[in-house]
Specification:
The complex is a heterodimer of chains A (478) and B (312). Chain A is built from eleven helices and eleven strands. Chain A has 478 residues and is an alpha+beta fold. Chain A has two domains: 2-58 and 442-477, no CATH class; 66-424, no CATH class. Chain B is mainly alpha-helical and 312 residues long. Chain B has two domains: 5-54 and 275-304; 71-267, f41 fragment of flagellin, N-terminal domain, CATH 1.20.1330. The chains are: A alpha+beta (478), B mainly alpha (312).
């Protein structure tokens, strides 16, 4: 009897020691991201005593799936907003960047020439203002290109990160599915699997399928396999002639399927940058064409027919003027064609007044044929019309800049900020629920520890008492 | 609901981040004096502010033009005023001459010299300039529009500049109209009359003063052959009419400038309303945020030590 009691005490001692170890693990990982607390579940043995029937991992798959879904959208918004913030800085006219003040200064400079066409200082002011404007247009274009090129490089790095994570998931699947049987070790692998899935969801939108043995299959949102059991498919990065990034998975271009995650956000950013560059280029092309046309209608200070006001950088291979190559074509103030009458080149101001009027509109400056030729060169030309040109003609260059370029970025940032706030709130809310389910509470663990200590002490007492009983019995025999 | 240790810290860091971000934003507003710091703060107000900025720049341009136009008009009006004054005095001399039957040589020379100096004064004033621009040469403002004999070499076209939307005023004037040029001779009528009188004095036959006529087509009317004094009056009348027109333009420019300045102030106030920080509101908001931040710090400080560990 006493020998049997000693065996019960012994098994209990081992069981509670293991349980204390699990509690210690919980306490040690109190601040470990992605850690799911473990609870030993006891069962009594038929022969008496107690054992750990299994270790329960506090994990809610449904919450985890929702977290991944929201996390993808949040990561996309975060990445997209980061890129938009950079673009917004370029068009922050209220703080001194942007084109609005330079455009106002450019048109305003014609005023002084209109008052006194012979005034060389006033003519020089026109050239200075034009140079400042072309400088701003080109530096804005160059900054947009730089942001795009940085975004594309980050995109490439993100694809590499995704490949690393899918490869890691494949290895985890291998261990979870076949190798590990010990409960706490398997739980640790599952924690790592979920952490990896969360990291992956930050980078790309995925669909996760949980298998009965604890492994997961991961596919893109459109169903292309990224991880199937322990096999990870590698993604490839490339760029097209426009410098836009592309991703292929098993020779299939999946770029257009990517909406969420950091990668989706970067793609949204590149698309926005392309649109921004198109608008800026269309603005520069139309603006230079119209100003040139009006300028060539006049006569310079020497009575010679006006030449093009704007030109393109000699180093440019493009056939048209745009924001990347626009330059001032005049280097002498006398070349400003202020007069419409060659007989009075230094006193007539008719042409400079028409140049000044371009600020409010340019209807009638170009002939229908010239307009069609211009429209055909614009980026948003759809084969019949250009919305950008129509807007500039219906309103003005200033209004196109204000409404279509500067305001557009403001509205886009506002929209993404709202979306990001919503997704952040949702993510925090789901994360709080996950924490409530899986997080470690120190007081709870300490209480458990005390409880297990007491149970351990009681088990030890069983052994001591059994030993004393045995000793007493042995003494009786002597 | 279970509360994990991590949740406590997550909640703290989340609200700490939010409060710090609020404080930073309000501090930026107070430091810069602007509530619109970037387009996304309020895109609609940003566009409105940009439009107002553009309109203010346009008004600045108009106001500068108005100043230039006003100084041009003042010089032109002054020149015409001087011509009219001298013309009036000269008319008195001509009338006196007409009433004089006989003139000895010396008196004749004195009057002749007076008339010559009056003529030269009138042509000089008609060639008045501002910064090299001959005001009465029309678009041909680079050289003197009137020759010594009053011949008009200027242009009919005038140069104008905008002082407001749809309102343009002259920076040069058509000397032919303003100085009463006789279309038949191409000369200023008044100067032509003075030259005729000088010629008659030189001839010694003063009776011609009563009989001589001049074919005058000036100030938009073909008057036919008229006597010299009448011709002189026609020339002077044309100048006085156009002087009053310049006066009207000066009145218009004053009105428009006053209007432009009022609008500019309104635009500036509107722009300020859209862009500038509301200091009292921002300071009150800062205090609220600071209180919330202090409460957060105090709550965290109180809660962080609550643990069963303290009793072990």
């Amino acid at each position: 009897m006493s020998l049997f009691s000693s065996a019960i005490g012994n098994s209990s001692l081992l069981t509670y020691k293991k349980s204390i170890d699990i509690t210690n693990q919980n306490m040690a990982n109190v601040f470990t991201n992605g850690y799911s607390r473990k609870t030993p579940v006891f069962s009594d043995l038929v022969t008496g005593g107690v054992e750990i029937s299994h270790v329960e991992r506090s994990f809610d798959q449904n919450l985890h799936t929702r977290y991944i879904s929201v996390n993808q959208r949040k990561a996309s918004d975060e990445e997209y907003k980061g890129m938009l913030d950079q673009v917004e800085t370029l068009y922050n006219d209220l703080q001194g960047s942007g084109l609005a003040s330079s455009m106002d200064a450019f048109f305003n400079a014609f005023n002084d020439v209109a008052v006194n066409p012979a005034n060389t200082a006033a003519r020089q002011e026109v050239l200075s203002a034009a140079q400042a404007l072309t400088g701003r247009i080109r530096s804005t274009h160059s900054d947009l290109e730089q942001i795009k090129s940085n975004t594309v490089l980050t995109f490439r790095d993100t694809v590499s990160q995704i490949n690393e994570l899918t490869s890691k998931l494949g290895e985890l699947n291998l261990n979870i599915g076949s190798g590990v049987t010990e409960a706490t070790a398997k739980a640790a692998y599952l924690d790592e699997r979920d952490r990896t899935l969360q990291s992956l969801s930050t980078l790309i939108d995925t669909k996760v399928t949980y298998n009965a043995n604890g492994t997961v299959n991961v596919a893109t949102a459109k169903g292309f396999d990224m991880v199937l059991q322990n096999k990870a498919n590698t993604m490839s990065f490339s760029t097209d002639v426009q410098g836009d990034p592309h991703v292929t998975l098993g020779n299939i271009d999946i770029t257009s399927d990517l909406q969420n995650g950091t990668l989706g956000g970067q793609l949204r950013g590149v698309n926005y940058l392309n649109k921004s560059l198109e608008d800026l280029n269309d603005f520069a092309t139309a603006f230079s064409t119209v100003v040139n046309k009006q300028h060539t209608q006049g006569f310079d200070a020497a009575g010679t027919a006006g030449v093009d006001f704007f030109g393109k950088d000699p180093g440019s291979t493009l056939t048209k003027i745009d924001a990347s190559n626009i330059t001032l074509n005049l280097d002498d103030p006398a070349l400003v064609a202020a007069s419409a009458d060659s007989a009075y080149p230094e006193s007539d101001n008719s042409n400079v007044k028409k140049l000044l009027e371009l600020k409010t509109g340019f209807s009638g400056v170009l002939t229908p044929a010239e307009e069609n030729a211009l429209i055909a060169t614009l980026n948003d030309f759809d084969g019949t019309a250009s919305a950008n040109f129509d807007y500039m003609k219906a309103h003005s260059f200033n209004e196109f800049y204000n409404s279509k370029i500067a305001a557009s970025i403001g509205f886009e940032v506002q929209h993404v900020t709202t979306s990001l706030e919503t997704n952040s709130f949702l993510q925090e809310s789901i994360d709080a629920q996950i924490q409530a389910k899986s997080g470690v509470n120190m007081d709870e663990e300490l209480a458990n520890l005390v409880k297990l200590q007491r149970a351990y002490e009681a088990s030890a007492r069983i052994i001591t008492v059994s030993d004393e009983l045995l000793q007493t019995t042995l003494n009786m025999i002597q | 609901m279970r509360v994990s240790e991590q949740s406590l810290f997550n909640t703290y860091t989340k609200y700490d981040r939010l409060r710090q971000s609020d404080i930073q934003r309000i501090t930026e507003e107070l430091s810069s004096g602007k509530k619109l710091l970037k387009p996304s703060d309020n895109s609609v107000d940003t566009i409105r502010a940009l439009r107002l900025q553009s309109l203010s720049t346009e008004l600045d341009g108009y106001n500068r033009n108005t100043e230039m136009v006003r100084s041009t008009q003042e010089v032109a009006e002054g020149a015409m005023g001087a011509i009219v004054e001298v013309g009036s005095e000269t008319r008195v001399e001509i009338t006196r001459l007409l009433n004089t039957g006989v003139l000895d040589y010396e008196d004749g020379q004195v009057i002749k010299q007076y008339l010559e100096s009056a003529r030269d004064f009138i042509t000089n004033q008609a060639n008045a300039q501002v910064g090299g621009i001959r005001l009465f040469g029309g678009v041909a403002s680079g050289s003197d529009p009137f020759g010594p004999d009053g011949t008009y070499n200027g242009a009919a076209a005038e140069t104008t500049v905008a002082i407001s939307k749809g309102v343009e005023l002259n920076t040069t004037f058509n000397g032919s109209d303003h100085m009463g040029v006789n279309i038949n001779s191409g000369k200023m009528t008044a100067v032509e009359v003075l030259d005729s009188i000088i010629g008659i004095i030189d001839s010694g036959d003063l009776t011609q003063l009563h009989t001589a006529t001049l074919a005058v087509d000036a100030n938009g009317t073909d008057h036919g052959d008229v006597k010299l004094l009448e011709a002189f009056d026609i020339g002077m009348e044309a100048m006085m009419e156009h002087r009053s027109l310049i006066g009207n333009q000066m009145k218009v420019s004053e009105d428009i400038q006053s209007q432009n300045e009022t609008i500019a102030v309104n635009f500036s106030q509107l722009q300020s309303k859209l862009e500038d920080a509301d200091y009292s509101g921002a300071i009150s908001e800062l205090q609220k945020t600071q209180t919330a931040y202090q409460a957060l710090l105090a709550a965290f400080n109180q809660n962080k030590d609550l643990s069963l560990l303290n009793y072990f």
